[in-house]
Amino acid sequence: MTETATFPDLNGKSVFITGGGSGIGAALTDGFLAQGAKVAFVQRSDASEFVAAMAAKHGQAPLFIPCDITDIAALQGAIAQASAAHGPVTALINNAANDKRHSTEEVTEEFWDWMMAINQKAYFFACQAVIDGMKAAGGGSIVNFTSISYMMGQDGYPAYITGNSGINAMTRGLAREFGPDKIRVNALAPGWVLTDKQKEMWVTPEALAAHIDKQCLKETLAPEDMIEPTLFLASNASRGMTGQSMVVDAGVVVSG
Question: What pLDDT, on a 0 to 100 scale, did the predictor assign at position 196?
Fold first, then answer.
């Protein structure tokens, strides 16, 4: 059994995760609870069974708030609810995304707006909603999940990669703006993480073999592989790091 690193300053921290009940988000909720953090998360689908499983595992249930993150008022309300329950959110993890496959020719204005609403707009307004609380608390950490897809020049979802590239620009701008308030903003760019959704919809033996051939490390990535990098970015272990994009992709792209 692999041991997980311990970050003592995360014990008792108020953490808010978008999409925290499935896929990578569920792994992150599990990982933060294991550190003793107070976790609240949002997602559209019911997460009651997951919440019960986490309560049984950790002796502490995460706060699940049903929410469509494209409804900005509802998202802001959920962050306010989490802050009332756990104290000001001092670790925001913008994880929820949608990488629906599409071609440039079939993109409509409505589809474009929907993709941006999920993959970029909600990130910005979640950041905006936690800023005052982080200032009052003396600082905080924001982790914006992006993707290596735009670094690879990946085809098959142009609106998605556009949104992901914009997340990095937003991350750098907010890091500069709120650094004086001791608020750190970083991006985390996973490679191809084999969530249940990915396995059900897009993983084929041929596609997976081709992708692993591009990796330096010849192993597939699981949601659990994103836990410790996220904990690191949320914790004081990365106190001198902001405005950066950290790649966790088994060695497909090179940043820096």
Answer: 86
